[in-house]
Amino acid sequence: MRTDTQQIVRLEDYRPSDFLIDRVELDVGLHPTATRVVATLTMRPNPEGRPDAPLVLDGDELNLKALALNGRSLSAEEFEASPQSLTIAQAPRQPFTLTIETEINPTANTKLMGLYRSGGNYCTQCEAEGFRRITYFLDRPDVMAVYTTRIEADREDAPVLLGNGNPVAGGVVDGSDRHYAVWHDPHPKPSYLFALVGGRLGRVSKTFTTMSGRAVDLAIYVEPGKESRADYALDALERSMRWDERVFGREYDLDVFNIVAVSDFNMGAMENKGLNIFNDKYVLASPETATDMDYAHIEAIIAHEYFHNWTGNRVTCRDWFQLCLKEGLTVFRDQEFSSDERSRPVHRIAEVKTLRARQFLEDASPLAHPVRPTQYREINNFYTATVYEKGAEIVRMLRTIIGEADFRRGMDLYFERCDGTAATVEDFLSAFAEVTGRDLSHFARWYEQSGTPRVTVKGHHDPDAKTFRLDFTQSTPPTPGQPEKGAMAIPVALGLVAQDGSDQDGSDQDDSAQDRSWANAACERLDSRGVFLFDKPQDSITFTGVTSRPVPSLLRGFSAPVKLSLDLPNEELLALLRHDTDAFNRWQAAQTVAMRLLVGLAKGVDAADQDIGALSGALCSFMGRDALADPAFAALVVTLPSEADVAQEIGQDVDPDAIHRARSQMRQRIGRSCAQPLQRFYDALSDSGPYSPDAASAGRRSLRNACLDLLAAADAGTGEALAVRQLESASNMTDRLASLSVLTTLPGAVREEAIARFGDRYRNEPLVLDKWFTLQAAIPEDGTLERVTGLMQHPAFSISNPNRVRALIGSFAMLNQVQFNRADGAGYRFLASIVLRVDELNPQLAARLLTAFSTWRMMESARRAQAEQALRSIAQKPNLSRDVGDIVSRSLEEGGAK
Ligand code: BES
Ligand code: ZN
Questions:
Q1: Does residue 721 carry a pLDDT above 90?
Q2: Is 78 a catalytic residue?
Q3: What's the rounded Cα separation, in Å, for the pair 446 and 448?
């Protein structure tokens, strides 16, 4: 391995930059293979830096063409340049200008970092450390400058030229085929927020008037001909802007806001100041090509990147250890936006499902790390579920603890105090400490300690004293680098629900009446919002005035990212499904019962026949009672935990085949005993009227498709007939894809025919073909690996396009538990070979694929040995990228998580 693969960056080593850059003038002459960049940097020594330090600028694969200091060309002895850095040992001690000319090749840039080409257009991606691939720079987020960018290009090739900030000039270059545009961004920003775009692009636009009455031109640029597919994104942008004004008092601060959709992008989207660049899958949508879930993602990501304008751009991060300061907070904000625009409980359940599937998984893996890591080898590997999703949960807990009003006051103070600065997690927390007068130092442990806390609760009812006591204990398992753990400050939202075996007459019980029967129950340890702050290793709380044994409803709304164990019998959980006033806990109750049964079946320790009967009975009557009132919620309730969820719950010596059999068996049992209501809902919710992506219509589709899935599990013949009919008659991609997905679970000629026809129908729609790749990669049958390698030869597949690679290979590794984890190790060897191939083109993408191995230590011993061998074969390879080298070595390290 190269020596730099071992270099570690540490939080404790942070020191301010020795030099500052106040202004950047960039002149970029776009050319497919030889783009010229002239950067004029107005610089000065930092009063907080070291007085005699040399000036060392970062570079990455750069080619220096010329260098001048205060207008004078430097001679070879006055500087040292390599592709990785530019050093001037004797830099001036007064303000100076440095003029740097570099030449770069955007066509050869397969890493998709810095300036590259996508679909014939030019675009950039600079976060986290991509600006140094454009010019030598102090490429760190605490160096903030005002940028002016002049872009010049061939008029035919790139009629559209976009930059950060506002357009200030433009025109043709006399006597040539070229033209130029000048953009000026008045807001000082770090280099990672720099962007430019040049190309042939179509456009949709509208004017937005801000709360103070300023007009802003909003525009979205897409591949010509696809303009109408950007309408939904534009509408989501407008709603996001309005929401941030209303909920956080945040107004937009430039005359224009541009979004560009590109087809080759490592991530989902990027919040460059005034010029967001998006993976086109998160912009383009039409009923024919996008599912309800795509629409929801587009809305959330448009909002997320827009919200960064305040949480990330106006207030940025001091260093990359503070990444959660912008990402966790902005995820929290986009979650709140989606909850307000859609159904709050349904959205909360969806958030928690992803949190558990991704973040809890990461926390239990060798890649576990704190929300604010203390060291990294490659920062790209820290854009993780932990930083993002657990980071958002921390903000949510803070709001739960201090209340909405103080939360808003704290946010206001944070913006006021930190606007225009590069801030830290401490700056964020101190704003809330100040407005509330609270000491948040214990709470801050959430940023430092990794691993998912486990909270165990036991209830004791004393009928004579009419008291109900809850005994809490907590512990957090060891994780890499953190063998010992302290107690966390855990907000537990809770309530008591009446047992209620009595109302079996089927009469409609008013749910809130159930809570009211405990109106006399009191507990002084709860705050006015019903939250108990559990911040010691053990604690107990007691309710008085409790006449009969209640069912405790704990962690309502999932008030903290912990694993709760509470040994309630199944009947009591099913009482919660029926009566809890908290929708999240109603869903959770059904999931907990289902999970117990699935784990029992998978381990073969429990026949569980009666219990499965009880669960399906409860689900049937839930459907009959509640499904039509909130179909989206009902769809979540009747969907069993995934195979990956069950594997995580089992946690060690996992046998994916046994889990797959258990889940299939349960789906079949539930499908059979609920066949009548399922069929009734399937018919009643049939596709009617023109498609609309709104949450209510999407909810009806999701319930109908959940019914279809269970009906097919109950009886393959019925399922196939229904799915084929739906596939042929569907008016939209949601229903079409759902039916094709059901067909993929039913082997045979009908399925193969349906797959072939779908592929043919959408042969010119890459984003739809990605769904088609994903469905096939997820088929849980022998032969899928061969199918996947076959599909790699499909004309639409490309190993250099991240969306294609993730859709086919990423889905195989992340969604197909049984085939990726084949006992013979072929799935692991396949992924290892792809990782090595992709690493030569795009290390970031390769490293992400490699994280599919993070569950390897949970597997039973034969699979574990196979996975380890595959990982070692990667580790042995010379010249691994830093990205892949980092993930593979952490995955193999001993210690911490199992
Ligand atoms: N700032 C990130 C994009 C990014 C991440 C750039 C890593 C470079 C490296 C952006 O704001 C972001 O978080 N995007 C997410 C989507 C979001 C809705 C969570 C993404 O790209 O996945
Ligand atoms: Zn973000």
A1: yes
A2: no
A3: 6
